[in-house]
Amino acid sequence: MAVSRLVKDIAHALVAAAQDEKVVAKIVEDLKRLQVAQTNKTLSEALDDVHPFTQNAILSLQHHSLLKDLPAFVTAVLAEAQSTANHRDVRVTTPLPLTDGERKSIAKIVEKKFGGTHTLSERIEPGIIGGLIIDIGDWHMDASIKGKLTRLTNALTA
Amino acid sequence: MAAETEILQTETTEVTHAEPTGVLGTLGVSTDLLIAQFVNFAIVLLVLWRWVYRPLMKKMDQRAKTISDGLSFADESKIALAEAEQARDQMLREAKAESHVMMEKTLAEAEKLKAEKLVQAKDEIEKVIAEAKQQIKAERDASFDALKGEIAELVSLATAKVAGAVDEKTQRALIADALQDIERA
Question: Is B182–A109 a contact, with Cβ atoms under 8 angstroms apart?
Fold first, then answer.
């Protein structure tokens, strides 16, 4: 599906404003929540808790009857945030929910390796047995027990 | 016999009774007797010269010649000995020089041979080591090929076992380890 020029322009404007106010991570997080809320039909309720910049962007989309393009808008905002604000979407997969200390450690590592800002997305996957997997764009780091065992098995059977 | 004796006595008496004359006679010297003594002396001298002196001189000359020859021979022998010694020394020097050259040549050849043998030995050692390594690698690969299938199976079994046995504390420790691994990567 082709993303309209207007959606891209709104995404660009939103990221530029958020970068000035240093709230890129916040609006990315907001948009992810809104994307989930749209799926769950709770978008209107979710709008109350988001950053004013995010609200304005959503209102602009509504004004131009582009709310149906919200997933594409979120994707465009993420791409814009990464290219212009060095913001990264960090997806972490663990066998159980992360603690605050673990989140801080992950944030510290990501900032050290990539700099800029980031948004953390967590996914629970008991199948990885232990450890965790981090995906940041094309960068993939599998430090799970399952991943290690898989690599070991592949090495042994190669 | 008696008659002859008588005659001789008579002659002796006559001689004894001859009267000396002249100066010699004055001195009591009988001329005849003197002559006879001269003759006797001459005879004795002749006999001595002919049968004593000459043979003796001849013998002495021969002895002198023998001695002279001996001395000459001794001198010649000394010269010959000196020359022989000189020749021997020269030969010894030449032999030493030649042996020295031969020794150096032999040593050089020995060194060259040693170096060649050393290179050969090293090559052979390298070859043996390479073959041993290859053999070890082949054996290891064969053993590893045989084992890795079993290990993979064991890994799968261990995975299944571990998946159901990890408590939360262990999970947190594993996450902490994983974060350290990522930080180091």
Answer: yes
